[in-house]
Design a protein that fits this description.
Elements lengths: L5 H16 L10 H18 L3 E5 L6 E6 L7 E7 L19 E3 L8 E3 L7 H16 L6 E7 L7 H9 L8 E4 L11 E6 L1 E10 L5 E2 L10 H10 L22 H11 L3 H7 L13 H4 L5 E9 L9 E2 L2 E10 L5 H15 L5 E10 L2 E2 L5 H14 L4 E4 L7 H8 L3 E3 L15 E3 H18 L2
Parallel strand pairs: 3-6, 3-7, 7-17, 8-16
Antiparallel strand pairs: 1-2, 2-6, 4-5, 5-18, 8-15, 9-13, 9-14, 10-12, 11-13
The structure holds ligand BES and manganese (II) ion (2 copies).
One manganese (II) ion binds next to loops.
């Protein structure tokens, strides 16, 4: 289906490999220089592929890569957003091949090969599809849109400096649509098209008990154990029906009407057994009254992401810990506001903390949910582009993940976003052995070109 020659395919994969070899880990300060190197490499690629200009913008954190090509004042402008930073590769010992030494391997899911490397799917591989789609359009003299690229280096750590960049560069970033490939689809035969993202509120709590770790025999039984207290508090946050117990949590949740819910369920062809099998579970669990697909898309969540305290080393040590902590994420849906939810969480946690311990609550980062509106040309052009490339109408579906900057594109720049992602759930993003189908990469390059075709027309 791809319009690329075999030579071009090989060349594009080799170039992507260069990109993947650069360890651009935003969370780890030891990789600061590596982040700069990656940004410069990408900026140079934008020029090579046909941008009139490109610049690496310094921020208080990691740099932002910007590039643009102006074609004609009467053409619409597409702003491509993505991120060149990646998640840390840990636990590194679980990788079959090293995370920054990309290789193509055949798998059951990708019999035609998948690229194994950190960032192969999230998001370097997907960013690179945009660079190559743009290069192809220029080569074929079919570029019918003005193009701006804005590729940041802090998506995986909360995009804190990008907000400032948006506020300071509103007119420079003026565009008719924001186009992003940083999500996934169901499969290549009957693809879904992402029309929504959940929001996120990421919190940390720390319980402090006695002023030092204590002998659990000499002191045990006479004071509150911070880990026991933390466990009690956490388990009280979700009731038997799977509802989150924080007062006000559901106040602004948009309830979808029954007929719409049924038609989404009918259209999605979501297979519960496939889902369970793919993650090695006998049973699913979640909020009562909602299907698995709904629990993954239109309902908010609360999950502990990490918990620690006390002795966790080899053997045993009899100790009552002085401290216990947990990191908790909440996924949000329209019309919840992440700052409001973080505040409700903080107040509730403080209220349920017993006097036998003290509490500290921190808000890490967050973002609001997003829905792509149906009544604009970007939505329409995306549907047509999938149809051209896959030969079938895509199934619109809300995703469970978050890209916190997306709602800010709307609130700060006033521009709507189209999410055209090509990853699969099995691509193991954020996990060991992250990979991205070679077919997905090439069909992405094709679909993006078709998007331009319809949007610029
Ligand atoms: N690309 C992902 C988000 C994503 C993946 C959305 C698949 C939908 C489908 C992004 O890089 C990511 O990992 N986002 C984080 C939030 C961020 C603030 C760390 C997330 O969703 O946990
Ligand atoms: Mn991403
Ligand atoms: Mn990610």
């Amino acid at each position: 289906m791809s319009t690329l020659s075999e030579e071009e395919k090989e060349k594009y994969l080799n170039e992507l490999f260069e990109f993947l070899k650069l360890p651009s880990i935003s969370a780890d300060s030891r990789y600061k220089d590596s982040m700069i190197k990656t940004a410069k490499w990408l900026s140079n690629e934008l020029i090579k592929s046909g941008c009139d200009s490109s610049k690496v913008y310094e921020t208080d954190g990691h740099p932002i890569v910007y590039g643009e090509k102006f074609v004609d004042g009467s053409f619409p402008t597409i702003l491509v957003y993505g991120h060149y930073d990646v998640q840390p590769p840990d636990p590194i010992e679980l990788w079959t091949t090293p995370p920054f030494e990309p290789v193509i391997k055949n798998t059951n899911i990708h019999p035609d090969g998948a690229i194994f490397a950190r960032g192969a799917c999230d998001d370097k591989g997907q960013v690179f599809m945009h660079v190559k789609a743009f290069e192809q359009l220029i080569k074929k003299d079919k570029l019918n849109c003005n193009v701006k690229f804005m590729i940041e280096g802090e998506e995986e750590v909360g995009s804190e400096n990008l907000e400032k960049f948006l506020l300071e560069n509103k007119s420079k970033l003026n565009a008719d649509v924001i186009l992003i490939s940083d999500t996934g689809l169901s499969n290549l035969k009957k693809p879904t098209f992402t029309i929504g993202l959940r929001g996120l509120s990421y919190m940390e709590i720390k319980i402090t008990g006695p002023n030092r770790d204590l002998h659990s025999g000499l002191y045990g039984g006479a004071l509150a154990n911070p880990i026991n207290i933390l466990s009690d508090m956490i388990s009280s946050l979700i009731d038997e029906e799977g509802k989150i117990t924080i007062p006000g949590f559901y106040d602004n949740v948009l309830e979808i009407d029954q007929s719409k819910r049924e038609s989404v369920e009918e259209m999605s062809k979501f297979d519960n057994d496939d889902f369970k099998n793919s993650i090695g579970l006998k049973e699913t669990k979640g909020e009562k009254g909602y299907s698995t697909l709904e629990r993954l898309s239109i309902r908010p969540t609360l999950d502990v992401n990490g918990i620690w305290g006390g002795y966790t080393g080899e053997g045993s040590k009899t100790v009552i810990p002085s401290e216990a902590s947990a990191k908790i994420s909440m996924r949000l849906v329209p019309n919840q506001n992440w700052e409001k939810i973080s505040e409700l969480f903080t107040n509730h946690i403080k209220k349920i903390t017993p006097n036998s311990v003290s509490i500290d609550v921190t808000t890490h980062h967050g973002g609001n949910p997003y829905i792509t509106p149906e009544d604009f040309k970007g939505y329409d052009s995306a549907i047509k582009a999938y149809k051209d490339s896959f030969g079938i109408d895509p199934i619109p579906q809300k995703d469970g993940g978050s890209i916190p900057i997306v709602p800010m594109f709307e609130s700060i720049l006033g521009t709507k976003t189209v999410l055209m992602g090509f990853g699969l759930d099995s691509d193991a993003i954020h996990s060991p052995d992250e990979n991205y189908g070679v077919k997905n990469f090439f069909i992405g390059i094709d679909t993006i070109q078709n998007f331009y075709k319809h949007f610029g027309n």
